[in-house]
Amino acid sequence: MIPALEPVGRGRSFPGSAARAARPGQGVGARPLAARLRPALFIALVAAAFACGPVRLVSPYDEAIDRGASEIHTRIVAFIERMTGLAGKPEGTYPANVGFYGDLKASLATLKLRAQAQGKNEITIALVGELATNVENLRKLHEMSKDAGLASILASPALSAIEINCAAIVKFEVAKRRGTQE
């Protein structure tokens, strides 16, 4: 007589299946080793692929920021040189040169906007902000000196701070450029 067969999964199984289930790793629902390792292998391969790719911690080189900082530096150095030569004269007073500070403030705002337009550019944004602060300090020194103009003793430390800021921006951009060439 042939035994009645019940579907698997309702508590009954085919004849002889108990012997197969008794072997380790061969029970009902057991998968071969390769099938069990497949997800882990996939995750490892994906992680390795991402680990080998370039990781950007800062924004790429921006020629406009590099040139902009250099041009601002040139304008400030020329202005301070001219103002120290005109100290004590009407042409060297703050009211006679207030327009320069307005133009410079606009250039710095544009430079900052350019830096903010790129992601991962917080360092450059901070450097441009520090430069703007030092330019504002120079403006205040010029304004406070009234009719005496911008004397060399006041302008020299302000120029040093501004030069440090401009150099930091340019050096950082040059370092970014070197990073993109490698």
What is the structural class? mainly alpha
* Mass-distribution shape: rod-shaped
Number of strands: 0
Largest sheet: none
The total of helices stands at 6
Helix content: 55-70%
CA gyration radius, whole angstroms: 35 Å
pLDDT below 50 for ≥5 consecutive residues: which ranges? none
From the 3D coordinates, which CATH architecture of the domain at 63-181 would you assign? Up-down Bundle
Work out the strand percent. under 5%
Query: What is the CATH topology assignment of the domain at 63-181?
Result: Four Helix Bundle (Hemerythrin (Met), subunit A)
Distance between the termini: 80 Å
Reconstruct the topology from this structure.
Layout lengths: L16 H6 L10 H20 L10 H23 L8 H23 L5 H23 L7 H30 L1
Helix pairs in contact: 3-4, 3-6, 4-5, 5-6
Mind explaining what this structure looks like?
The protein is an all-alpha fold and 182 residues long. The chain has a domain at 63-181: Four Helix Bundle (Hemerythrin (Met), subunit A). The protein has helices at 17-22, 33-52, 63-85, 94-116, 122-144, 152-181. Helix 3 (63-85) runs antiparallel to helix 6 (152-181), helix 4 runs antiparallel to helix 5 and helix 5 runs antiparallel to helix 6 (152-181). It starts with 16 loop residues before the first helix and ends with a helix.
